[in-house]
Amino acid sequence: MFRIPRDALVFVGDGRKALFLRNAGDALSLDLKTEKVFEDTNPMTREQGSDRPGRVIEPSFPGRKSAVEQTDWHDIEEHRFARTVAEAMEQMVRTSKAKAVVVVAPPKTLADLRSAFHPEVKARIVAEINKDLTKHSVREIEKHLVSDGPT
Predict the structure, then answer these.
(1) Are 21 and 9 in contact (CB under 8 A)?
(2) Model confidence over 78-102: pLDDT tens digits?
């Protein structure tokens, strides 16, 4: 059975929202308390860029043009947000001297966080859970963590 130790930091996030929770209970009964919440306003790409995708003229084939893929501003902002919350996690780990960290995020965000986390944070990660729980209440998150455990 998966247990989250007392005073462990629990990060629940995706590319737009991040919850920093602390287990005020013990390893047998979770009591998550909200420490910080980050929310990013990230409009859809079509709302962020107004230009059409560019064209490239191929010098080896006169008269032929190729389309350039449109920049996904929404995706870029999600990567940036992951780096921002990873920095916030580092500060929380250092100031609170947390000995254990649990990370709950969907696969893409989890990958971004893994590459952005400071080694000090990585050393304290006791579990990674591949789920998007940001739209759930803290009580529902507790239930998911108790029933699902790490992946």
Answers:
(1) yes
(2) 888 889 999 999 999 999 888 999 9
Q: Does any domain span residue 138?
A: yes
Other CB atoms within a 10 A radius of the CB of residue 88 amount to 15
AA identity, residue 142: E
Task: Provide the residue range defining the domain that includes 80.
Answer: 9-42+75-148
* C-alpha span between 23 and 7 (Å, rounded): 5
CB 65 within 8 A of CB 51: no
What is the CATH number for 37? 3.30.420.60
73-96 and 107-116 helices, crossing angle to 10°: 60
Q: Is 7 left (phi over 0), alpha (psi -120 to 50) or beta?
A: left
69 lies in some domain: no
Helices assigned H by DSSP within 19-106: 45-48, 73-96
Digit-coded pLDDT (tens) for 109-149 = 999 999 999 999 999 999 999 999 999 999 999 999 887 66
Number of domains in the chain: 1
> Is this model's pTM higher than 0.85 or not?
no
- Cα radius of gyration rounded to whole Å, the chain: 20
